[in-house]
């Protein structure tokens, strides 16, 4: 069913396995019997996992699925998420344990203990409350990786405010649509951020985004780069002026297990980003459980580092909520991996003796490109578990990661999940699973996933199809903000009769029944682990005055997984003038960056005279992908005009 690239064929021929060492298995958090325990009574299993948390009021029902697909987990229970991530560790006598080793890009550092974190979060909560914010209000956060980003999220959680973190690289337009959709009352940002040694403005972009934004009453600005910023009197407040003077005491209130914790926007198959809604008790339960079992995390012993940005779900679940609930000591790094040199990550691992490292395949492939000589210069012997997330990891990168970063012995956990699933769903368990390079392998204990065909019938071993989740799980999304119909339609309509959640990914079972993820089957691209929809980029392109029509595909890219390739038909007057055409392409790439953000900039834009369409007018992206990946163009019989592909190919070959 899914169209396979040569890289995927390679992946599926992989047959090596790497069983855990006896030494690792003997101390592992996960044990093989968890699978059977969860299968015997799934709800009892999750109730046991929920005991990891402090509940102010215990739940009366583990799962209420009576209003499916809207789940209620731990119904009737009450808890405070921030109390669970911060205060209780102080109450348990761990106030002096470092929670965050923060490393700034320019080399400045800051350590925050749990006692420090409690103080900062309490002050920030008092500050937000002083602005009149009450539980249920929304707060947008656009901040780079500074401690205040985490403090701000936890302060919201403490007050029952719903945060919406917007990735720092998103454009003013993208920020604005998210602020409007969530009707955020407050926006938290910084003056600027350090990127590759330079200070880039943040506040100025936020100001541009918020022009005329009616819901926003206050903008709180963290001082970081000391860049001069535009200022709106009466609306703008400095974080340090507002927060520093607040009381360090704040009593957390317990909220319902289903209280909205955050909204996080992600690309769907249409242009409008979806506000994925996550709630409190079930989310935190699965975040903590997976962080404990999948990373084998041992509080007080391990030093953990997840390299994601808090603007993505990985940062939410595996920097903020799961790890802090488990009393982690973690590294948080502000900058890029090659500033000021390509060994920056290894230098940090050596310095802080990082033992668990969680990153993305695109970065691993970049490290491969830079050469193994770079990590070889550092002492990485503290590393004992390695993780991967965001896209399928090719076996070459997996082996390189294990050999060069994990000293040929650290288990690698290839974790499959989504913004929508909230936490890891499919992954090997370190100490239990004999790992296979390139396969996420098996649903975690408590989770059920299947590969099915068009008719929703599970495929057999060796068969491929669609990945579905056939049982509800605690950290599942509770909906799309303000759009219940879109929620049902997007995730639950494809296999409505069976009640399966359709993930949008293609997958395959190998002969052992292990799952191999094969990438998206919808119009969502995966560029460096970031989800971008083809429609979103197409709308950005056609919003430019020179473009008549546009079609976008994700083409296989050796480093970023996929690269964005756009085919555009320019408007008559521009198309006739070749020099103008060149200029137009540069302008178009910049236009997309401005509309969505630099991550959505097409790798390549090809000007074409026509686009291949079916008789019903649907663009055949499959054929364009063939062109973008330099392959022989496939079957054209369903095209309305079968000569179109010749026209496209000949135009490109002659360099036009
Ligand atoms: C892809 C990121 C293969 C997949 C946590 C999914 C993966 C999308 C893996 C979600 C993996 C994520 N192997 N593919 N280990 N992890 N994906 O919402 O296509 O940014 O649907 O969440 O990334 O991306 P999202």
UniProtKB/TrEMBL annotation:
Enzyme class name: ligase
The EC designation for this entry is 6.2.1.1
Catalysed transformations (reactions): acetate + ATP + CoA = acetyl-CoA + AMP + diphosphate
Q: Which cofactor does it need?
A: Mg(2+)
> Residue positions of the PTM N6-acetyllysine?
618
Tell me the ranges covered by the Acetyl-coenzyme A synthetase N-terminal domain, including all copies.
32-85
Q: Where does the record place the AMP-dependent synthetase/ligase domain?
A: 92-481
Q: Which domain of life is it from?
A: Bacteria
Residues noted as binding CoA in the record, renumbered to the chain: 195-198, 314, 338, 528
Q: List the Gene Ontology MF annotations in alphabetical order.
A: acetate-CoA ligase activity
Q: Which residues take part in binding ATP?
A: 390-392, 414-419, 505, 520, 531
The UniProt entry, under InterPro entries, shows: Ac_CoA_lig, ACAS_N, AMP-bd_C, AMP-bd_C_sf, AMP-binding_CS, AMP-dep_synth/lig_dom, ANL_N_sf
**Pfam families tied to this protein:** ACAS_N, AMP-binding, AMP-binding_C
The answer to whether the entry has keyword Transmembrane is: no
Q: Consult the record and explain the modifications the protein receives after translation.
A: Acetylated. Deacetylation by the SIR2-homolog deacetylase activates the enzyme.
Instruction: List keywords of the entry alphabetically.
Output: Acetylation, ATP-binding, Ligase, Magnesium, Metal-binding, Nucleotide-binding
The similarity comment for this entry is:
Belongs to the ATP-dependent AMP-binding enzyme family.
Q: What does this protein do?
A: Catalyzes the conversion of acetate into acetyl-CoA (AcCoA), an essential intermediate at the junction of anabolic and catabolic pathways. AcsA undergoes a two-step reaction. In the first half reaction, AcsA combines acetate with ATP to form acetyl-adenylate (AcAMP) intermediate. In the second half reaction, it can then transfer the acetyl group from AcAMP to the sulfhydryl group of CoA, forming the product AcCoA.
Report what the protein is called: Acetyl-coenzyme A synthetase
- Which source organism? Amycolatopsis magusensis
Q: Which gene encodes it?
A: acsA
